[in-house]
Amino acid sequence: MAIRILHTADLHLGASLKNYGELARGRRQDFLKTFDRIVNLAIKREVDCLLVAGDLFDSAQVDAEIVGRVQDGFERLSGRGIRIVLIPGTHDNVVSAESVYNRHSFAGAHILKDPVVNEPLPLEIRGATVYFYGFAYRSDRSREALESLRRRDGGGIHVGLLHGSLKGSPEWDMRKKDIPFTTPELAALGLDYIALGHYHNVGCLEEQGRIIACYPGSPEGKKFGENGERHVLIVEVGEGSAAVEKVPVQSRIVNEFTVDASLFPEPGALEGELARLASPDLIARIRLVGTVEDPLDTSNLSGRLQGRYSWLELLDETDLYDSSHVKRMEREDSIRGLFIRKVHDRFEKAETEAEQELCRDALKLVMGRFVRGGGN
């Protein structure tokens, strides 16, 4: 026997998303649309169970509208006979009495809120019993929580849910509440599959050629670094086996690029390259690098590209210091020439790289004002 699971985590519904500026409101709607898309996918793929491995919500207290959206989605799933099992995460924890999971009911959903696994949750699926193990971490009561996931005696399929951190991962520094673990530690628990949450990029952990556990990543990019397609996992779980399929679900793509502006010296050429990279559903951060002859007007560029991207952040990391144009202007008998000479002199006398970088930045800033203001 095998069961089909849709595994997701880290949806962060209700996040402020202020890092997206004027697009923040639209991004909050994107996250809700992606939740709806996940519900629809679960129905379309006829999964037996939806697993949410923590941080369905971005905080413990959530707007009633968002709660209602989730309640409606869960009711649609349970109406189709799809079981829902979820655990709170670090963002939507149950420490407070005001936690969304303590204040609201979610019909059809099994929310594993205990600080350790006393006994797994048994659910009848396809005429057999499937056992689900999960807990809501509490610093004062979860000292043995990871060990409590260890498989209980008996046959059938045993599935875990864990919102935690792989030791040695470069994603972030771990805290105790991040529940650190190693792949061998998870394998030793004896479960057929462990649905992980907490890290926002997809990845599976294997031991002796067998998939032990997977992170689905966040289904929508919450910030830069969560780039490219975002996924949920469709997992076929049997006794001692798990086969995983990544399915993209995002509403918009978040991505980062680096463009060497020195390769586009002709008027309009850089704008043309940025337009080529554009897409109406793309949220982009573009670093402009290279030695340029004239200061870039990134505000003007952003305005001219309005509408080609969902949202565009241009970072000007170009350098004027060694440009032939600046070297020619240095010889001028003008305020501009005098300024350049003083900057170059200060640069040569600088004792640290930080002082040199300050000189480069000052030159770029003032030269931009000369060019746009017509000074000489």
TrEMBL record:
A Pfam cross-reference name: Metallophos
Keyword Nuclease in annotation: yes
GO molecular function: exonuclease activity
SUPFAM superfamilies: Metallo-dependent phosphatases
Keyword line: Exonuclease, Hydrolase, Nuclease
Top-level taxon: Bacteria
Transmembrane segments: none
Residues annotated as domain Calcineurin-like phosphoesterase: 3-201
Keyword Nuclease among record annotations: yes
InterPro entries reported for this sequence: Calcineurin-like_PHP, DNA_Repair-Maintenance_Comp, Metallo-depent_PP-like, Mre11_N
Protein name according to UniProt: DNA repair exonuclease
Organism expressing this protein natively: Geobacter benzoatilyticus
